[in-house]
């Protein structure tokens, strides 16, 4: 699996096998934390929020023991998304904000993108708050790192267009789709 293509049937057994091995051989490793993040993602796709939150919290606990900022950022963002999916908006969004801030400070572009994507989509579709979604998306789109990130930039621009449409700002949405 990779971003934009998720094959749960093929990928999940590999993650579960890695989990068993790493829990035995490297229980406090960044590798195990990233496996937990990946399993949290699987749970998100399967709408198993409680289980996904558990995996994300396990990843975050390992990250904090390791004092690894990249792993902490991932753990916060995925735990935050799972909390938001449970309806715990304030705590979930706080976690995502904290994770995004680390990703921004440490120049972790894909981690920042994931945080903004989660926050933007959840604000837009979960809370029906296009203004919050636009604020987050605009902030990331204005970052210099986005100038050379054509795929992620296009994905965020698509979400930005959606936020304008939900807000009833059709003229702004059209400008983004057809700037000429």
Explained architecture:
By secondary structure, the protein is mainly α. It is 79% helix and 0% strand. The chain has helices spanning 8-25, 30-46, 49-66, 69-85, 89-105, 109-126, 130-141, 150-166, 170-177. It is elongated. The termini are far apart. The model has no long low-confidence stretch (mean pLDDT 92).
What labels would you give this structure?
single chain; 180 residues; mainly alpha; 9 helices; 79% helix; elongated
Principal-axis shape: elongated
Helix content: over 70%
How big a fraction of the residues is strand? under 5%
- Compressed to H and E, one letter per element, the order equals HHHHHHHHH
Distance between the termini: 36 Å
Number of strands: 0
Count the helices. How many? 9
Mean pLDDT: 92
Roughly how many Å is the radius of gyration?
Answer: 17 Å
Structural class: mainly alpha
Largest sheet: none
- Name the poorly predicted regions: none
List the helices and strands and how they pair.
Layout: H1 8-25, H2 30-46, H3 49-66, H4 69-85, H5 89-105, H6 109-126, H7 130-141, H8 150-166, H9 170-177
Helix pairs in contact: 1-2, 2-3, 2-4, 3-4, 4-5, 4-6, 5-6, 6-7, 6-8, 7-8, 8-9
In short:
With 180 residues, the chain is mainly α.
